[in-house]
């Protein structure tokens, strides 16, 4: 039987709670309620406790990211702003959507030429992640991005959160490109948002929080994915799976090899996404 840890500030107090940032054991007298999980007094003050190295004393997120000053949800705000800006441009600029939507290979009458990723327009895999056509589409995605992003960004840190978002969206786009009909277009941040949804499940499980609300949200979105018309289910599933894999490595990776596990997993997801793109391009060429 493993020994029950003791609070780092009160050695006589047994506890099963750990700080969401530095992971030191904390008792009920020391824990400070945060937006996601509990934090120790030292991390709340932005410092470290005694008996730790200077590096360990630097405030870190649960995933090991550096905690910086300023807006703790900066990346979430910037991503929402980028999506809204692209949406506005799409409403104003003629044929902007035709030039940026994800599509395998097809002749576009509006542009008068063949378009698609297989025709060398690889940028569509990225641009389509920020592209929305209907107001309800962007409203739903941005609401979920805000709801899920604020907690994840706090626990992962800015860089890791941004990487999670972009790789989830790219994985969703790659699976769509691989499996969808070559002339079927796809757009939206749903793949990236589904990655955040999967990451939230991993995070709440790590923090031993009630999973029922988020699992109900996952179930609802999967029902919409498979029973709502004109939805690219491949983007949703690809993003969800990528989000779970990446977040699990970021949140549950061993502390002594944390960087290797985290960035190695991100590299593997990126490599697999690129492989799917290359295979599809070869099939369409």
Automatic annotation (TrEMBL):
InterPro entries: Peptidase_S54_rhomboid_dom, Rhomboid-like_sf, Rhomboid_protease_S54. It comes from Streptomyces lichenis. It holds the Pfam family Rhomboid. Residues 120-251 form the Peptidase S54 rhomboid domain. It comes from the Bacteria. Keywords: Hydrolase, Membrane, Protease, Transmembrane, Transmembrane helix. This is Rhomboid family intramembrane serine protease. GO terms for molecular function: peptidase activity. Belongs to the peptidase S54 family. GO terms for biological process: proteolysis. It is found in: Membrane. The chain crosses the membrane at residues 74-93, 134-152, 159-180, 186-204, 211-228, 234-251, 260-279. It is a multi-pass membrane protein.
